[in-house]
Design goal:
Helix content is about 35%, strand content about 15%. It has helices at about 10-20, 50-60, 75-80, 80-105, 135-150, 170-180, 200-210, 225-235, 270, 280-290; strands at about 5, 25-30, 40-45, 65-70, 105-110, 155, 160, 185-190, 190-195, 195, 215-220, 225, 245-250. Bound molecules: NADP nicotinamide-adenine-dinucleotide phosphate (NAP).
Length: about 300
Amino acid sequence: MDTLLVVGGSGLVGGKVCEAGRDAFHVVGTHRGPAPKIPRVRFVEFHKERADEGVALIRQLKPAAVVDTAALHNVDRCEEERDLAWQVNAGSTGALARVAQDVGARYLFVSTDFVFDGRKGGYREEDVPRPVNYYGETKLAGEHAVLAASGDHLVIRPSVVFGWDDTRLNFATWVLSSLKEGKSIDVATDWIGSPTFADSLASGILKLLKVPDGGVYHLAGADALSRHDFAVRLAKAFGLDVGLVRPVKSADLPLKARRPPDSSLSSAKAKRHRVAVVPADKGIAAMKEQRTLDRFVPPARFKS
Ligand SMILES: NC(=O)c1ccc[n+]([C@@H]2O[C@H](COP(=O)([O-])OP(=O)(O)OC[C@H]3O[C@@H](n4cnc5c(N)ncnc54)[C@H](OP(=O)(O)O)[C@@H]3O)[C@@H](O)[C@H]2O)c1
């Protein structure tokens, strides 16, 4: 059986890729914090700050493919800890993609809709990225390094990734757990993205590993929704109090880094390869089927 290395296997997307890949691959995932327990997945510790260790790991494992989901993607933190953000999101990514090419492994880098300036929305792969914050700059540099290492490598761009995750909160689980506790939340009406259900994204990633052409693929849900609209849909689906979702303008939120106003994505290219992520409502319905809100203990951590 071929080996699949999932860098950031302890994260939301990485964990789902580990689970979805177990039947077809011998899966090795990396973690930086506590090692998760996913049956039939071996975990090894790896910090992207120490790229040499990742290079050695890839040389030793000789995987058929590497899926790199690991990032410093707390947008405000990237603005303040620029060297670290560059090293994790760009420098180390390039080093791993180059050694993957050396050992004959295909590298798939999970990038972001935040490479765009958000002035028009509905972005396609041909649109010119113009990041408005340092996070977006580092991820764009990571993309360039991956594609420079090999034309067979892949870059995928999701947007507003959501799903159950017991290790840290994402937008959806933050909304659901806040409303369940009766807390009102301020949610921007003027930030638009394409909510991407993590489980469906993970299956899409595994399918894209098989497409013949390398390059950039947008891989996100089809709906362009403001964070407020998305929060309202979540609240309604889970029978929570919609009145607790307070509409605000993003300018009223206490944030350091600029955000692209509308970074929604068109994923038509991936669809032509028969790869698609489910629409937001289907993702929300799948979350409801997977577990009730009572069985979710909100973790204290937010994303890295
Ligand atoms: N979440 C979104 O809304 C969103 C939207 C667009 C694009 N993306 C992109 O999608 C990817 C996956 O996002 P996610 O939501 O799955 O993130 P996540 O749940 O926060 O997981 C991040 C993963 O990266 C690992 N990591 C963080 N810093 C690291 C470092 N210095 N060295 C090695 N590993 C490190 C974490 O390890 P530990 O947990 O062990 O610390 C974790 O496994 C990211 O590349 C992000 O840029 C996310």
